[in-house]
């Protein structure tokens, strides 16, 4: 094969990899996750993640993802964003 053809194949492969959608990560278990893991959820940063852990320690496990709304700073809009990425 010529160098030009190899370069073309390499560029095609690279472009294919860069434009392929990234597969979604497994849902995070809110009753077991660390603050670091929780911070990766959409709409949850480090401060809210720590608030979730603190609330969980103080009040026990969440019975549903919707129960996250009991944490200060987490409302219905944030809970709605978590539908596919958080679980029990």
Automatic annotation (TrEMBL):
InterPro entries cross-referenced by the UniProt entry: Competence_ComEA_HhH, Endo/Exo/Phosphatase_dom_1, Hlx-hairpin-Hlx_DNA-bd_motif, RuvA_2-like
Keywords attached to this entry: Signal
Domain Helix-hairpin-helix DNA-binding motif class: residue ranges: 36-55, 66-85
Domain of life where this protein originates: Bacteria
Leader sequence segment: 1-24
PANTHER family hit by this protein: ENDONUCLEASE/EXONUCLEASE/PHOSPHATASE FAMILY DOMAIN-CONTAINING PROTEIN 1 (PTHR21180), ENDONUCLEASE_EXONUCLEASE_PHOSPHATASE FAMILY DOMAIN-CONTAINING PROTEIN 1 (PTHR21180:SF32)
The name this protein goes by in its record: Helix-hairpin-helix DNA-binding motif class 1 domain-containing protein
Organism (species): Salinicola rhizosphaerae
